[in-house]
## 1
Amino acid sequence: MSERAPLLTLNGVNTHIGPYHILQGVDLEVPRGALTMLLGRNGAGKTTTLRTIMGLWHASAGSVRFDGADITAWATPDIARAGIAYVPENMGIFADLTVRENLLLAARSGPIDAARLRWIFGLFPALEKFWLLAAGVLSGGQKQMLSIARAIIEPRKLFLIDEPTKGLAPAIIANMIAAFHELKKSSDTTILVVEQNFLFAKSLGDAVAVMDNGRVVHAGAMTALVADRDLQQRLLGLSLDRNQ
C-alpha cells in the first residue's frame, strides 16, 4: 500500500436517513493507488458510506475529504467532476439503450478514447460481442460488467463500487476477479469496494475496513485479516476461507 497521504478520508461522519441514524461516527482512510475492501454484515452501513461519499446522502456531522478538498457539502455532480466514479448496487445502466450508447453517455468529455475502449474490451470481452445489443437483454454478469465499464470509460481518481459480485455465478465471479486484477494495474488507480463475497475480497484487497452498527470497527491490511481466522470470526461471523 502507498505511504502517501490517503486519497479519501472520512472523519467522524454521521448520516441520517429520515429518522434513522445510519452512520455513527465513521472514520475511514482510503490509500492512494490501492484497492480497499469495505466489509461487514448486512445493515452495517457500507452502502450508506458510499452514498455519503458521493453526496447522494449528506453527512449530518463529520467531514469527507478527497484529494485535499473538503467535499462534505458538495453536490453529487461536483463530486463526480472532481474525479470520483460510482457503481451502485443496482448497476444504474440504461436497459433500453445499447451497450455502445450506455458507454457513449458515460464518456462525458467527448468521443470514447479508442485505446481505452480496447482496454475495456480486454477486461470484458462480452461487451464487444454485444456492442449493439440493448443492455436490458444482457445477463446479470454482463450487466455488471457494463456498469463497471461505464464507470471506468474515462480515467478517474477514485472508483466506488458496491457489491460487484452480488448474484453472480462462480465462473462469472472468477472472470470479475481477473478483470479487477487488470484494473488494479492501471496507473494510480484507487478503488473502494463494498463486497460480500470473501473469495473476491481476499483475492483483490490491499487494505480492508470492517463496519458494524454504523462505525468502522477494524482497519488494516487485507493480508493480516486473511491470516487471522479468530479476527474474521469476531468481526464478520465467518471465515474468509469461505467463498460466500
## 2
Amino acid sequence: MQTKRPAAVALAGALCLAATACGASPSPTAKAAAGAGAPGYPVTLKNCGTTTTYTKAPSRVVVMNGASVAEASSLLALGLGDRIVANEQSYGRSEVPGRAEAIKKLPTGHIALNDAYDIPREAMLGLSPDLVLSTTSYGLDAKNGFATRDDLKAVGANSYVSPQGCDQDTSRMTVDDSYQLLRDLGKIFHVSGRAEQLITESRRRISDVSAKVRSEKKPNVMVVFSNMSMGGNDFSSIAAHGIWNDILAKAGGTNAFSATSNSAFADLSKEKVAAEQVDALVVISYNDPDPEAYARKLLKEFPQWPAAKNERSLVLSDSVYLGPSNDLAVEKIAKMLHPDDF
C-alpha cells in the first residue's frame, strides 16, 4: 500500500505548569528566579536567524514530527528523554537496540494532529512547553497552522530548528549536521561533555570503516523510502541529495540517482529507474510494517540490475537520516558493498 504524506512532511487536552496559569507567560522576575544559580547558564544560540537565550535546562520539551526521529533520538542518546512532555516522532524501528521501543514509550501529549501529522498551534500552546524542536521551519510557520517562534516566545518557550532545516531544503545535509544537532542540544541542556563524547565515538567508527573501503570501486546505490509516494510518478521517494549521499561516500558507494534531481528527492518514471545501473539497494523504512518485502519486490521488478542478480539490498531506518547514529548506517552499507574488507 502506498503511503501518501504532505510534501513538506516527506522531505512533521492542555497540560499546565503548576506554578503558572495555562498558556501564561512567566513574568521577568519569575524567569530570572528560575534561572538563578543554574550552572553553565545563560546559554545563547543563533538558530535560523533567531537568537535564543536559555537561563536553565529546558524541562518541558515538545518534539514535532517533521517525518524525522532525529530530535527524539538525539535527546535519548544524550540521556534527556525525561525532559520530553510530547513527542510526535517515530520511524517504527531503529538500528539502535531498544531505541524504537524507547521512542514508543515517550509521552505524546494526546494531541489531535493536523493534516501534516503534527501539532497545531492551539494544542502546542496548551502543552506549555519551554522548548519546541522542529526538523525544519515548516513546523513553525503560521500559514501551515503551527505556532510561530514569536507565539512560543510569548508564552516563555524557546524554539530550535535542526541544521539545514531553516529553508526547508535538506538536500545539503551531511553527517556533520547530525553532529551540530548533538552539539547544540548539548549546549542547551548543559551536557556538552556527553555530546562531544558521542561525536568523537561516531567520527572514530566512521573513520575506521572508511579507511577499509577507501581504495575500492564505488558501486551505484539506489536509496528509496519504502511504500511512500511524494509525487506523480511511479517512483517519487528516491533519495537524490542529502545526508544519505555523505553516508554512501563514507561507506564506499555513490548515489545512482544523484544526477536525476537538484533537490533532496527524485520523482521518476519506472522506465527511468529501469535504465539506471543499480549495484545495490538501500530501502529506508518510515513506519512501514514490512520494508523487506518492498526491497524484494523492487529486486524482482528490475531483474537486470546488478543488485538483483547479486541479491544486494539492505533495509535501514533512523541511522541513514539526521540523528546520532549515522556511524551504524556507514558500517552496514560498507559491509553490504564491500564484504571482503570486513
